[in-house]
Amino acid sequence: xxxxxxxxxxxxxxxxxxxxxxxxxxxxxxxxxxxxxxxxxxxxxxxxxxxxxxxxxxxxxxxxxxxxxxxxxxxxxxxxxxxxxxxxxxxxxxxxxxxxxxxxxxxxxxxxxxxxxxxxxxxxxxxxxxxxxxxxxxxxxxxxxxxxxxxxxxxxxxxxxxxxxxxxxxxxxxxxxxxxxxxxxxxxxxxxxxxxxxxxxxxxxxxxxxxxxxxxxxxxxxxxxxxxxxxxxxxxxxxxxxxxxxxxxxxxxxxxxxxxxxxxxxxxxxxxxxxxxxxxxxxxxxxxxxxxxxxxxxxxxxxxxxxxxxxxxxxxxxxxxxxxxxxxxxxxxxxxxxxxxxxxxxxxxxxxxxxxxxxxxxxxxxxxxxxxxxxxxxxxxxxxxxxxxxxxxxxxxxxxxxxxxxxxxxxxxxxxxxxxxxxxxxxxxxxxxxxxxxxxxxxxxxxxxxxxxxxxxxxxxxxxxxxxxxxxxxxxxxxxxxxxxxxxxxxxxxxxxxxxxxxxxxxxxxxxxxxxxxxxxxxxxxxxxxxxxxxxxxxxxxxxxxxxxxxxxxxxxxxxxxxxxxxxxxxxxxxxxxxxxxxxxxxxxxxxxxxxxxxxxxxxxxxxxxxxxxxxxxxxxxxxxxxxxxxxxxxxxxxxxxxxxxxxxxxxxxxxxxxxxxxxxxxxxxxxxxxxxxxxxxxxxxxxxxxxxxxxxxxxxxxxxxxxxxxxxxxxxxxxxxxxxxxxxxxxxxxxxxxxxxxxxxxxxxxxxxxxxxxxxxxxxxxxxxxxxxxxxxxxxxxxxxxxxxxxxxxxxxxxxxxxxxxxxxxxxxxxxxxxxxxxxxxxxxxxxxxxxxxxxxxxxxxxxxxxxxxxxxxxxxxxxxxxxxxxxxxxxxxxxxxxxxxxxxxxxxxxxxxxxxxxxxxxxxxxxxxxxxxxxxxxxxxxxxxxxxxxxxxxxxxxxxxxxxxxxxxxxxxxxxxxxxxxxxxxxxxxxxxxxxxxxxxxxx
Length: 990
Description:
The protein is α+β, with helices and mostly antiparallel strands. Strand 32 and strand 33 form a beta hairpin.
């Protein structure tokens, strides 16, 4: 029977992490002590999406007491290099701009000061001059011949164009009775963890080495990228992580460029430097999921059975291709047929750059972008044939007897019974009742729909999948890359207690609880006797490039290798105990804190005594056993092979299954989406801790709900970032989250040590399209894109039946398209002054200087051209700007056109306004105006919900002042009217 320990981890034991986290005792990066003399950094960021960097004036910032340095890209050019991308392209992707900026939020300078407050103040004083370039934000437009090219050395914005063919898709499409296609534009979103990025960096000039503490998540393959960017060997970049991290959802791999930036700053100033990102920076400058344009075509028969798929995927990776991208595009390559037995596949993958934030890993990366078109297509097939969508799904599922199942594109699905999962979900989730609810709702005239989704959740990524972006010849030249190395170390101390260290950085998942239970079970001791350390130090701990906490690899790989290390250590202890008890090692049982004979329980020793032997009595250790003090295990599964010459890719090790269905109702009047019921069935193999699995499912569902209904990172046509606060980038709260019915079916994986599969990302993949399918069912739609906002659904409900405005009312203006940041307004007032008096004031520079809020002086360049320096703000942002005002189309004293531009470190703006003056018949003047303006940069990002209101307040304030002062000794009132369009185009207040 062999050596025995206790059973695997106890069900839903209390999390050991929670007491500290819930009482404020967590140790996040900002909680950890820093060395005396540590300086603090603030980053100056570009307000432009695309511009030449003309100059950076540091003088005012350096004059501020406490500011130690202002560092630019030119200062770092000699001590840093570019961030090497996963794809060989001619793109110099540095951590800071040198001579050109390519997205709003790109770093252009670092201010280092004695504290964060003075660093922030210094950043406001850095004066950067730009020359704007045309920008492109739409990935399809970026491929056009007239599109501005972001990197001239690359020749175009197209970084990669690969085509793949599996089976005989051409013949399948030619023979098919039916063909159908969907086109999906999947939007950008992000993870929005509670804790943003944080870094403390130090440089040792004697060793030419860096010590960087950062809340980096992994994959640690990026360690090599950071070391190369800092121009040091890998062993001279010590990367450490804090014990706790306040969430990540994938995005904290994106801290890597900032680790390079702050480390290089520490080298220049000769002291440690700390930087903690704020929420505005995080939204604008951290990491975004890719947005993707997909056209997916299917060949199918009259029963809805799909024989072939044709994928055309256009991936927008933002301004730079940063490692590990284009991982999002290729992570799902082996899973392009989803849960379905489809033998023929054709794929075209293109990667394009645009003037947006560079992309990275966001929870479920690649999965939502694949399953949205695939599962929308399955519903469209059912709709096209007049079939039940659930029946179409069922007819295409991989049969249970086919496992392990090799997909057309190369993935090896380990285990499952998808049909049984559907049956159980329908039975225990109450599908029949939900169908009755839909019938009743529709009979009452309500908009009610049901959506279905079947999805395969891959976990434990094959490190070689990204090389599928290369041709077979390029891969052969570079050498094979594959596997998913996991590491764990189990250590015994002299009193018999146990410490576990794994190369996985948790962000709240419960590593300490699960690992303590697993190791305790193997050794037959209480879990309280096991301590798990969750920080990582690349200079001391065992790790590999695959290390990190990503792609749902903890339960399947990390927990499994901890079990393996504990088992090896237990086997050594068994041989030590057997020598002392004079029995066979195979007869021993580890249980209840003792090592005992299975056949003679009286023959036993305390576990602590056996465990301490190698420390206290190494002479009692058999010569062929070796010291039983520490065991480090490395594990990688043989199933994860490198992509072959035909581009078959085993992109992940194990594959869970998800089947979701939901019932939703759309309010006719408001467009609000109400989730009546949501059922999610999961097969994640062996469940190690039921409570944590439920937590992962619920967390993934809430994040997916945000992606489906609320969240989108929006950019204007000129690249202005418009989602810079949590007032514009909406996240779901507890009040928006419905009750969730969670069901499970367990099919143990034959490929993992514990039979477990991943479960942390599944609903991020399945829920958005499940909700969209339900909405499409409710509204009888062929196409719907995310997010499913009330405004969008209200427009879809209304369609061509929008009622006309009330009689006598002003016709409504056309709704602005998404990303439109244009401010428009008009109005009129009467003042107690003649048109000639008002006109004279429009040309008086001295009066302008006295009345423009925040002005630091006005210069008259000609009778109709003025410049000024002003300090203005909107919401939480205030900064200094250069204003340029021109009067044209003069018709004195009856009218003029005012054109204004403003630019500064926090944004820019421009617009025009027409002012007309006419006598009111009573000695006064009626002034009428119209204006249209746009804003950009940080002002647009954080002021999206404030701009129109600020403009109205400014203009209203002007007219109130004008009415009070017209004709009096104080003649400044009319000049406030001149200012109003200028401020309106900025949307600002003084």
